[in-house]
C-alpha cells in the first residue's frame, strides 16, 4: 500500500513538471514518513545529500565532463567529428556510426555510463546537428551509445557486481568485451537501417574524396594526443579509472592553452557547463538513492524475490522472470540502487539453479544498460536531454529503436551463454 | 513487529553468514521465535559508514558499526586497530568483547555515549603485506612501495618507509593489476572478497600491521525496552557469536593460506630480525596515536592499556 | 531581495568552480607524484572526497536552479494557460522549498553538534567533520530562498514560468554548447 502511494506520488509530481531530482526527493520524503514517521525523515534528510556527494568515485562525473568541455569549447571535438564525417560520408548515417565508434572507444577508458554519455553529449551533438542530422536520432545515438561504457571494460557496474557476489572481477571484465562489441555492432546496424528507411533523418551520402579525407586528418592530432595520454595513462598504471578523468582534463587544458584554442570566455563557459551538468546528474542520483531507500524500507523488492523463490518455477522460468523484473525495475529506479538491492539475493537464487555467475553478471549488466534509456526514469536520457536541451520526451522517442535492438541482443546473450563465457574461459 | 538489522556485507560474505545472520538466528532460537529479524544486507539502507547513524536515529534497531568508519564518534575504540595490538585474532576478539561487556571500560562507555549497546564484536585477523611482486625480506624493501591503506593504517605504512595511497575500494583490483599500486595491507580473510588474490604474487603471514574492529550494536532505548529474558538471549547470542565467528576466522585464515599456495602465490613469514625491526617501527605508531588522542582530551594511553590488560587475561 | 540573492548565488558558484579546478590539479599532482617519485599526496583523497566534492555540488545548487540545470518532464506544458502554469510552478517551488528547509534544519543540527564536539576523522591529519558537512545546509538554504522568491514572483504575476525549448528555439540551446 505505502509503496503504491510513494510511486503514485512520484508520477503525479513528475507530471506536475517538478524537476525529476526533486520529485524523487519529495516522494521519498513522504514515503519515508509513511513508513517510519518523523524519525526516518529526519535521519535521511540530514545526510542523504552529503553521503552521495562526498564520494571519490563520483569524481569521474565532473572530471570527464570537464575534459569533454575543453575539447568542445576549443573546437577539438568538432575536428574529430568533421574528420570522421569526411571518411564515412559515403555511407548512409556514417557520422552516427562514427559516434558509436567514438563511444565504444570512450568506453575503453570510462567505466561509468553517466560520465560517458555526458562527454559525448557535449562533444558530438553540436557537430551532428551541424552536419544535418535529425535532432531526435542524434540524441538517440548519443544516449544509447553511452551505455556501452558499462559493458566494455572497465565497468563500475561489473566491478560492483563482482564484489557483491564474490565473482572474479577479472573474468567479469573480460566477459563484457564481446557482448559490448556485439552491442556496438547492433547499434551501427540500426543506424544503417534507420537511414535506409528514413533518409530524411540523416544527410545525403556524398562521394569520398581522398585528398579531403587526408586533409581532415591533420587537425585531429591534438585529440589523438589526448587519447594517448588517457588510454596510455590508464593501461600503464599511471592512474586509476577514477583518477584518469582529472589527468585527462588537465592534459586537455594544457593542450588547448598551448595551441591558443581557448580564450577567457570559452574557458568560463567550459567551467559553467561542467558545473551545471555535474549538479544535474548528482542531484538526480541523490533523489534516486533516497527513493531507493524508501522502496527497500517498504520491503517491496524483498517480498517480490521471496515470492519467486517460493513459486517452484523451472530454472529458465525463474531466470526469465528475473530478467523481466530487472527490466521493469530499470524503468523506475536508479541502476546502482537496483544492483545493490537485489543482486545479493537473486544471485544466490540463480546460482542454486545451476546458472553461471559470470554470465548472469553480463545479463544483469545488459538489463542495466536498457534501464538507463527506458522511460520514465532513464538516467542517460535525462543527461543527454539536460546537456543538449532537447526535451526529455523527444530523447526517449529517439532512443526507442535502439532499445528494441538491445532487447534482441539481450535475447542472444540469454540464448548463447558462450558469447559471454568464451573469453573468460580462456583465462586460467 | 520484527526487529530490524542492517549491515554492509553481501549475503555470501562470512561476516554475514557466520556473523550477523548467525547472531540473528541464535537470538530467534534462544527466545523461542519471540524475537525475529528483518535483515537489510549489503548497504541496502545506508552506506557502511552511515549505518551507525541509522541505528542511533532508530531507523533500524541493530546495525553494523565498523570502527574504522566512525573515528569521529568512537575514536578510542580505534586503539584495537593499531599495529601490534591484534596478533591472534581469536584471543584479541575475546579480549575486546570482554571490554565491551564491562560497564567500566572506556570502550563500552564510548558506545553508551552514542546511545548504543554493543551486541557482538570481532577483530579481523592482523593485516598482512599483500603485494603484486615477490616477497619482501628486509625492512629497506618497504622503501618506495605504493601501498593502499586508510585511517590509522596510513601511519603504519609511513612508519615502514612505504607510501600510503588512498584509493576507492572498486579501484584496488585494477590498480594492483596495472601496477598503480605495489600492494596493499589486508587481513587474509579480506583478500578473496575483493578478488585481490587474482592479482597478488605474495602474502606475508606473521606481520601485525593492524586490524579492523567489526562491531554490531543496538539502539540503547530499544534495548532497554526489552524484558530481561530477551536481554539475556541477546547477551548469550553475543557471547556465542563472538566465539563462533572468531574461531571461524582463524580456521579460514589457515585454509586460505593453503589455497593461496595452491594458486601459486608466495606465502611467507618475515625472518626474526626483519620482524623485530618492523615491530620497533610500528611501536612508534601506537605512541603517535595516543599523543594525538591526548591533544583532543582523550585518554588514548588508557585505552591501549585496557586492551593490553584484557589480552593478558585471555592468556596471551 | 532577488537581486542580492543573485549576487550570493553567483558568489557561491564561483567557489564551486574553484573546487572543480582544485580537484583537477590536486588529483593530477597526486597521480604524477605517486608515479614518478613514489610520494603520493596523502591528504588529496580526503580533501577531495569529503570537502571539495561537497563544496562543488552544494554551493552550485542555487545557481544551477537559475540556469535551468534541474530537468523536468513537460508533457502538458503547452496545454496550460500562463496563469495555470504560474500557479503550478509556484506550488512546485513551495513544496521543494519546504523539503529543502527541512534538509537545512536537520543537516544544520548535525553540523552544530559536530562543531560543538569538535569531531574529527582520524587520518594522516585530523579532518574536522563539521567543515565537510556545513556546505550542504548553506546550499539548500539559499536554494530554498530562491524557490520561495520565485514562487512569490509567479503568484504576483511578476515572472513567467521558464518554457521548455520548442522546435524553433532549439538552435539557442545548441549555441550554448559551442
Ligand atoms: Na567501460
Ligand atoms: Na529506466
From TrEMBL, chain A:
Protein name per Swiss-Prot or TrEMBL: TRAP transporter large permease protein
Family the entry assigns: Belongs to the TRAP transporter large permease family.
Pfam families in the cross-refs: DctM
Record field: transmembrane: 95-125, 137-161, 173-195, 216-238, 274-295, 315-332, 339-362, 399-423
Domain TRAP C4-dicarboxylate transport system permease DctM subunit, residue spans: 7-419
Organism: Alcanivorax xiamenensis
Alphabetical UniProt keywords: Cell inner membrane, Cell membrane, Membrane, Transmembrane, Transmembrane helix, Transport
Subunit structure as annotated in this protein's UniProt entry: The complex comprises the extracytoplasmic solute receptor protein and the two transmembrane proteins.
Localization, UniProt: Cell inner membrane
Membrane topology type: Multi-pass membrane protein
Role, per record: Part of the tripartite ATP-independent periplasmic (TRAP) transport system.
TrEMBL record, chain C:
Lineage: superkingdom: Bacteria
Membrane-spanning intervals of the chain: 12-37, 88-107, 127-148
Subcellular location: Cell inner membrane
Signal peptide: none
A Pfam match: DctQ
Keyword Cell membrane: yes
Domain Tripartite ATP-independent periplasmic transporters DctQ component: 23-151
Annotated keywords: Cell inner membrane, Cell membrane, Membrane, Transmembrane, Transmembrane helix, Transport
Topology in the lipid bilayer: Multi-pass membrane protein
Functional description taken from the UniProt entry: Part of the tripartite ATP-independent periplasmic (TRAP) transport system.
Record's subunit section: The complex comprises the extracytoplasmic solute receptor protein and the two transmembrane proteins.
PANTHER family named among the record's database cross-references: 2,3-DIKETO-L-GULONATE TRAP TRANSPORTER SMALL PERMEASE PROTEIN YIAM, TRAP TRANSPORTER SMALL PERMEASE PROTEIN
Family: Belongs to the TRAP transporter small permease family.
Descriptive protein name: TRAP transporter small permease protein
Organism name: Alcanivorax xiamenensis
Record lineage: Bacteria, Pseudomonadati, Pseudomonadota, Gammaproteobacteria, Oceanospirillales
Amino acid at each position: 500500500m505505502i509503496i503504491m502511494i510513494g510511486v503514485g506520488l512520484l508520477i503525479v509530481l513528475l507530471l506536475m513538471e517538478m524537476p525529476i531530482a526533486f520529485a524523487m526527493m519529495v516522494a521519498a520524503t513522504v514515503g519515508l514518513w509513511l513508513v517510519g514517521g518523523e524519525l526516518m525523515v529526519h535521519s535521511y534528510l540530514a545526510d542523504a545529500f552529503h553521503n552521495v556527494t562526498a564520494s571519490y568515485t563520483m569524481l569521474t562525473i565532473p572530471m570527464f565532463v570537464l575534459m569533454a568541455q575543453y575539447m568542445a569549447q576549443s573546437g577539438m571535438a568538432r575536428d574529430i567529428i568533421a574528420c570522421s564525417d569526411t571518411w564515412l560520408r559515403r555511407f548512409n548515417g556514417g557520422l552516427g556510426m562514427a559516434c558509436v565508434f567514438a563511444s565504444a572507444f570512450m568506453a575503453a577508458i570510462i567505466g561509468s555510463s553517466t560520465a560517458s554519455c555526458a562527454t559525448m553529449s557535449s562533444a558530438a551533438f553540436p557537430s551532428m546537428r551541424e552536419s544535418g542530422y535529425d535532432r531526435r536520432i542524434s540524441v538517440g545515438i548519443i544516449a544509447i551509445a553511452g551505455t556501452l561504457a558499462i559493458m566494455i571494460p572497465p565497468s563500475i557496474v561489473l566491478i560492483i557486481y563482482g564484489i557483491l557476489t564474490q565473482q572474479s572481477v577479472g573474468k567479469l571484465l573480460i566477459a563484457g568485451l564481446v557482448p559490448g562489441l556485439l552491442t556496438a555492432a547492433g547499434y551501427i546496424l540500426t543506424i544503417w537501417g534507420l537511414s535506409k528507411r528514413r533518409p530524411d533523418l540523416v544527410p545525403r551520402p556524398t562521394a569520398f574524396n581522398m585528398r579531403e579525407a587526408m586533409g581532415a586528418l591533420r587537425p585531429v592530432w591534438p585529440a589523438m594526443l589526448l587519447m594517448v595520454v588517457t588510454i596510455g595513462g590508464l593501461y600503464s598504471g599511471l592512474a586509476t579509472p577514477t583518477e584518469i578523468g582529472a589527468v585527462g582534463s588537465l592534459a586537455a587544458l594544457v593542450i588547448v592553452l598551448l595551441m591558443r584554442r581557448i580564450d577567457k570566455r570559452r574557458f568560463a563557459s567550459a567551467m559553467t557547463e561542467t558545473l551545471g551538468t555535474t549538479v544535474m546528474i548528482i542531484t538526480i542520483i541523490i533523489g534516486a538513492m533516497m527513493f531507493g531507500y524508501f522502496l527497500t524500507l517498504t520491503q517491496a523488492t524483498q517480498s517480490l524475490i521471496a515470492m519467486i523463490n517460493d513459486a517452484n518455477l523451472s530454472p529458465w522460468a525463474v531466470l526469465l522472470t528475473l530478467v523481466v523484473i530487472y527490466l521493469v525495475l530499470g524503468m523506475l529506479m536508479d541502476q546502482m540502487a537496483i544492483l545493490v538491492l537485489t543482486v545479493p539475493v537473486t544471485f544466490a537464487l540463480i546460482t542454486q539453479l545451476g546458472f553461471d555467475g559470470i554470465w548472469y553478471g553480463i545479463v544483469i549488466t545488459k538489463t542495466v544498460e536498457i534501464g538507463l534509456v527506458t522511460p520514465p526514469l532513464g538516467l542517460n536520457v535525462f543527461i543527454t536531454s539536460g546537456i543538449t536541451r532537447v526535451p526529455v520526451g523527444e530523447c526517449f522517442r529517439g532512443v526507442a529503436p535502439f532499445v528494441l535492438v538491445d532487447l534482441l541482443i539481450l535475447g542472444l546473450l540469454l540464448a548463447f551463454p558462450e558469447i559471454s563465457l568464451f573469453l573468460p574461459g580462456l583465462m586460467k | 513487529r520484527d526487529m530490524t538489522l542492517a549491515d554492509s556485507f553481501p549475503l555470501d560474505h562470512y561476516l554475514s553468514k557466520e556473523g550477523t545472520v548467525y547472531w540473528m538466528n541464535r537470538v530467534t532460537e534462544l527466545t523461542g521465535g519471540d524475537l525475529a529479524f528483518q535483515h537489510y544486507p549489503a548497504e541496502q539502507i545506508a552506506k557502511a559508514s552511515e549505518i551507525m547513524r541509522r541505528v542511533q536515529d532508530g531507523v533500524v534497531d541493530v546495525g553494523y558499526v565498523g570502527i574504522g568508519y566512525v573515528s569521529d564518534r568512537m575514536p578510542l575504540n580505534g586503539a584495537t586497530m593499531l599495529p601490534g595490538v591484534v596478533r591472534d585474532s581469536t584471543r584479541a576478539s575475546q579480549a575486546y568483547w570482554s571490554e565491551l561487556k564491562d560497564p567500566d571500560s572506556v570502550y563500552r562507555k564510548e558506545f553508551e555515549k552514542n546511545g548504543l549497546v554493543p551486541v557482538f564484536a570481532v577483530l579481523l585477523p592482523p593485516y598482512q603485506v599483500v603485494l603484486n611482486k615477490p616477497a619482501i625480506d628486509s625492512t629497506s624493501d618497504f622503501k618506495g612501495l605504493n601501498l593502499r591503506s586508510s585511517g590509522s593504517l596510513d601511519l603504519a605504512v609511513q612508519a615502514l618507509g612505504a607510501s600510503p595511497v588512498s584509493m576507492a575500494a572498486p579501484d584496488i583490483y585494477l590498480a594492483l593489476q596495472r601496477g598503480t599500486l605495489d600492494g596493499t595491507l589486508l587481513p587474509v580473510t579480506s583478500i578473496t572478497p575483493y578478488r585481490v588474490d587474482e592479482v597478488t604474487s605474495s602474502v606475508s603471514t606473521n606481520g601485525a600491521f593492524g586490524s579492523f574492529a567489526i562491531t554490531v550494536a543496538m539502539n540503547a532505548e530499544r534495548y532497554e525496552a526489552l524484558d530481561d529474558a530477551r536481554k539475556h538471549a541477546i547477551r548469550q547470542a553475543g557471547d556465542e557469536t563472538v566465539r563462533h565467528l572468531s574461531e571461524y576466522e582463524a580456521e579460514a585464515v589457515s585454509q586460505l593460506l593453503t589455497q593461496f599456495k595452491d594458486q601459486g602465490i608466495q606465502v611467507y613469514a618475515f625472518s626474526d630480525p626483519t620482524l623485530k625491526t618492523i615491530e620497533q617501527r610500528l611501536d612508534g605508531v601506537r605512541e603517535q596515536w595516543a599523543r594525538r588522542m591526548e591533544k583532543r582530551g582523550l585518554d588514548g594511553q588508557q585505552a591501549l592499556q585496557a586492551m593490553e590488560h584484557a589480552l593478558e587475561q585471555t592468556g596471551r | 531581495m532577488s537581486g542580492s540573492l543573485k549576487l550570493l548565488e553567483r558568489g557561491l558558484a564561483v567557489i564551486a568552480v574553484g573546487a572543480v579546478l582544485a580537484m583537477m590539479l590536486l588529483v593530477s599532482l597526486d597521480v604524477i607524484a605517486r608515479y614518478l617519485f613514489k610520494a603520493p599526496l596523502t591528504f588529496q583523497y580526503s580533501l577531495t572526497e569529503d570537502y571539495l566534492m561537497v563544496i562543488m555540488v552544494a554551493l552550485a545548487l542555487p545557481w544551477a536552479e537559475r540556469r535551468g540545470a534541474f530537468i523536468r518532464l513537460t508533457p502538458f506544458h503547452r496545454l496550460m494557460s500562463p496563469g495555470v502554469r504560474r500557479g503550478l510552478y509556484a506550488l512546485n517551488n513551495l513544496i521543494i522549498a519546504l523539503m529543502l528547509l527541512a534538509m537545512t534544519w536537520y543537516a544544520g543540527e548535525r553540523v552544530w553538534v559536530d562543531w560543538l564536539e569538535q569531531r574529527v576523522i582520524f587520518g594522516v591529519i585530523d579532518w574536522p567533520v563539521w567543515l565537510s558537512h556545513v556546505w550542504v545546509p548553506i546550499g539548500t538554504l539559499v536554494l530554498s530562498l530562491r524557490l520561495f522568491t520565485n514562487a512569490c514572483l509567479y503568484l504576483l504575476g511578476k515572472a513567467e514560468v521558464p518554457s521548455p525549448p520548442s522546435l524553433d528555439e532549439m538552435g539557442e540551446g545548441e549555441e550554448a554548447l559551442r
